Amino acid sequence: MSHQPEVVEESNRYLSPSGQSLLADAKQARATRINLPRTRATRTLTFAIVALPGAWALGLAEFMWPILVLPMAVFILRRSRILMPRAFFLWLAYVAIAIVAAVSAADGLRIITVYLAATIVFLFAYNASSDELPDSAIVALVALFWILVVVGGVLGLIFGTQEFPSLTNTLFVDEGQLETYWDDVTRVQLSDGLKVGEEAGLVLDHRPKGFLAYANHFGSAVVMFLPAVALLRLQLDRGRHSLSLDLVAVAAIFPFIISRNRWAWLSLLFIALYIVARLWRPFPRSARVMVIGLAMLLIVIAVTPLRGVVTDRLEGESSNQYRSEQYRLSWDLIQTSPWLGFGGNQESDEIAVTSQTVYEDLHLGADSQILQTMINHGLPALVLYGSWLIVLVGVTRVATTPILAITHLAGLVAILHTPFYILTPHRWMILMLVAGASFRYLNGSGRGRQVALWNRQAVLETQVRRRRRRRGMS
Question: Could you say which of 7, 115, 197, 283 has the lowest number of CB atoms within 10 Å?
Fold first, then answer.
């Protein structure tokens, strides 16, 4: 059995030249169809994506990216020049302000490592050539991330709120001594329990979250990267791969609805209508297919017990009042330190009262990217963060390639989700990955014009000139 490959290769020698050519074309087509990682860059990125379940099992999912980007940093530093688009200065300025705010407050250093990791991911994708990191591989790996998220959500339906402490939780988290956040993100759990004011409806009394930290993160990730899955599906021929992807897409409906993410539901509807509007003239058939698919989804929800979950969640007022109180208290707090914020999330001394419960020690900045950015780093940082997202959506609006379309739609969803969801770490890393790949197409004009962040040759020449000057002076 071990000699089978050698026999096959030996038999290929007796094929005619045309037969060998056809065999080579078939192998190339098969490798392209399933997007096998062939270069060091694609292997590095593949490992970063598939590491999510393992890191989650160890309690390290929220902290894995600063470690996983180290090979990407080596890949970048080995190049003679590190290039970036001119618009990337917006993000670098944001990171600089965040670092100053964290150092001045001696808090928030963990989120700084996430920002630096996101910077490396962007530069990694931007500086890699299309041969080193092809668009097809990026699309497939983004879709793979989405599949892992959905599989985790399905497992959340099966296992419910069963949980146990991970290795990290056991070693480093002393229950009752550290913040609830650290215990939450290091505990092995596939679903969140319902909060006060959330109805169980007719289905389940928990919210699937899969391998992510919170159920809101799960719903947001499903919407943000669903376009990558759709584009990958269009590129696949009929076979087991396309059938498997179809089954995963159908299975995603149930944890997505039961996760009770109202804003994720509405953002999915908005993005679907936006895509239909853009496709209607150039591709009316595709637009009609999307409308039919959306109608079928609504019918499935209407005729199944999922309807009870949706109606109960949409009619709930407690969550709206809770978020309203968060915004009010956050705005009152930020006025005391508007320029650099507080370096980290804060607890309010005031009591927030809703129709369902009374909240004491309310965590400000824990449930919204806008609030987190404003409270952690100040209002100027919030402006830079929003400007980077708007520029990203604007320069990719042409959507002439799959990677540009994915970035444009994911950026739109990110903007929609910033008021109510935290985007870091996983969704932000994937967004920066596709953003870096997208800007490779925009080098010619406008904000896509590239500049050198680092030029090894220029540095060496400067060092030589300095040495010559010193010798001349001596």
Answer: 7
